[in-house]
Specification:
With about 550 residues, the chain is an alpha+beta fold. It folds into three domains: about 160 residues, Penicillin binding protein transpeptidase fold (Orthogonal Bundle); about 80 residues, Beta Barrel (OB fold (Dihydrolipoamide Acetyltransferase, E2P)); about 210 residues, 3-Layer(aba) Sandwich (Beta-lactamase), CATH 3.40.710. The chain is built from 17 helices and 18 strands. The strands form eight sheets. A three-stranded antiparallel beta sheet has the order 3-16-17. It has a three-stranded antiparallel beta sheet with strand order 4-5-6, with no helix packed on it. A two-stranded parallel ribbon has the order 1-2. It is elongated, with a radius of gyration of 32 Å.
Length: about 550
């Protein structure tokens, strides 16, 4: 569940939505009994005339061509027996169990149990779950996804049986047979925050075991904010695609035909399983192309790319770039993002890469990357704690020093020097030379100690280039460290779970994150003011266009 209580994901070996007998449409009851058990309301669990007829047909064909299991027998088999075992011994056990079920339960109760238990392919158990997943009655070999023609024939057989038994009129049956299956596949949506959910799954399995997570059932109340997560997803995709376009057309697209990825008229991309939302990025398949335009298939939709749409590639004719069977160019770059609520430490959004399907590696929590100039906050915070003020000056000029036994000569990114400048100006302008000089003054070892207090656990080499971010760090720890400044010097351990309960509501755990005193409130407020100036007149000035508080 998200932070507002709405269901946002699930882990399950089986998808099941329970329904009561009253919630079951009469037309569904009639359809099932017509094809599975015509005398369901008359027999005591075993349909002896039907069994006799099935035995005759099986003897004639010298193999099992027809079954005679009633709904009650199927329920007994589903609940207590291995239905892949087709021996007479198992069938006799099924019959005895069916008689016991009929003695203990009413017909509505038996049908309800069957309707919630029957497997309808693709992990769906029960008609309610199947109805949400796709339209139509099916078993494995009649899956409307894997075999739509067989599913259509099965649907028409059900309609014919219902017509023969007088449960629907001839006109209704004829009209229904003219209709297509009307599939509207609704795959379970765990794609809002797949990296977030995967980290939670790993934690739950390690803590409570796989059976508890996937079979017994847990209710997990997370810190995820749906609106923030959607914004994070969109920001990462927008940023990577923008970067990709700025670096031009790469070509060498995967091609359905050349790479043997499928047939042109039958290809279905995973992206097409879900509703296509405005602003989303989905895979497109080129199905036709000439000098003027290219026709792109996106699920049931068709898009037209004109020569004007291709200008950014440096080419004018779509035929110069695209071939029938080509799939979309996706970014080869990756990015990650974490959003943490400052006062609580709750992780509100997490993106671990461009596509979870392509790479399960979570760059937000697992990857270590150099953080560059953002490391400078630890240098300046350490200096302020040692008595420096934002208005103290430092010389921004060429200099060399020994670090780790080597001569080190830091340079500014613009290859310019500003002379004597205040610390607040040096941080706002992300000046490299002043940051290194300041680290040398306070001692690089104490800067390392300062970063440790902020929660950084990765190795930090005690050399002056560290002041400019020459060390690998985890994004989660680095973002969490920045919450110290708006939180008056304290850091709350970042967490994704508020509480975990059993399926029936018994509390198993509740979040009580540790609170760490890192720096004094005065230093935290001073650092916050200095960081605000990065946006007001420093290297982050373009962010002012967002009209957000710095």
């Amino acid at each position: 569940y998200a932070d507002d209580g709405q269901l946002v994901g699930s882990f399950a070996l089986q998808r099941r939505i329970l329904m009561t007998y009253e919630q079951c449409p009469k037309i569904l009851f009639n359809a099932v009994t017509s094809i599975e058990d015509q005398h369901f309301e008359e027999h005591w669990g075993i349909d002896f005339p039907r069994i006799a007829g099935a035995m005759v047909r099986n003897v004639i064909h010298r193999r099992i061509t027809a079954g005679a299991s009633t709904i009650t027998m199927q329920l007994a088999g589903n609940l207590f027996l291995d239905r892949s075992d087709r021996t007479f011994r198992r069938k006799s056990q099924e019959m005895l169990l069916a008689l016991q079920i009929e003695r203990r339960y009413t017909k509505p109760q038996i049908f309800t149990m069957y309707a919630n238990q029957v497997y309808l392919a693709h992990g769906n158990y029960g008609f309610a779950a199947a109805a949400q997943f796709y339209f139509g009655k099916s078993v494995t070999e009649f899956s409307p996804i894997a075999n739509p023609e067989a599913a259509l024939n099965r649907r028409n057989l059900v309609l014919r049986r219902m017509e023969e038994e007088g449960k629907i009129s001839s006109a209704d049956a004829a009209n229904a047979k003219k209709m297509p299956l009307g599939l509207h596949i609704q795959y379970p949506r765990n794609d809002l925050a797949p990296y977030f959910f995967e980290d939670i799954r790993k934690y739950l399995e390690a803590t409570y075991g796989t059976e508890a997570v996937h079979e017994r059932g847990l209710r997990v109340y997370t810190t995820l904010n749906v609106k923030m997560q959607r914004a994070a997803n969109q920001a990462i995709r927008d940023g990577l695609h923008s970067y990709d376009r700025r670096h031009g057309w790469r070509g060498g697209l995967p091609n359905l035909i050349k790479d043997n990825l499928g047939k042109l008229d039958a290809y279905e991309d995973d992206d097409w399983r879900h509703a296509i939302e405005k602003g989303s990025y989905v895979t497109g398949l080129v199905v036709a192309v000439d000098d003027k335009s290219a026709t792109i298939k996106i699920g049931q939709y068709r898009a037209l790319l004109s020569s004007q749409d291709m200008v950014w590639t440096g080419k004018r004719k779509p035929s110069e770039l695209l071939k029938v069977g080509d799939l979309a160019q996706f970014s080869i770059q990756v990015a990650a993002m974490i959003t943490i609520d400052n006062p609580t430490g709750e992780i509100k959004a997490m993106v671990g890469g461009y596509s979870f399907e392509d790479s399960k590696f979570n760059r937000a929590t697992q990857a270590v990357r150099q953080v560059g100039s953002s490391f400078k906050v630890y240098v300046y915070a350490d200096a302020l704690e040692k008595g420096f003020t934002p208005f103290d000056t430092i010389l921004d000029a060429p200099f060399s020093t020994m670090s780790g036994g080597n001569l080190y000569s830091p340079r500014n990114y613009d290859e310019k020097f500003e002379g004597n400048i205040t610390l607040r100006r040096a941080l706002a302008g992300s000046r490299n030379v002043p940051a290194v000089k300041l680290a040398e003054k306070v001692g690089i070892s104490t800067v390392v100690d300062e970063a440790r207090r902020f929660g950084i656990s990765t190795p930090l080499p005690p050399y002056l280039p560290l002041a400019l971010g020459a060390a690998d760090m985890r994004l989660l720890e680095h973002v969490s460290a920045f919450t110290v400044f708006p939180d008056d010097g304290i850091r709350i351990d970042p967490h994704m779970i508020r509480r975990v309960a059993t399926y029936d509501g018994a509390l198993l755990e509740e979040a009580h994150p540790a609170i760490h005193e890192v720096i004094s409130p005065e230093v935290a407020r001073t650092m916050t003011a200095m960081l605000e100036e990065v946006i007001q007149f420093g290297t982050g000035i373009e962010a002012k266009a967002l009209n957000r508080p710095a």
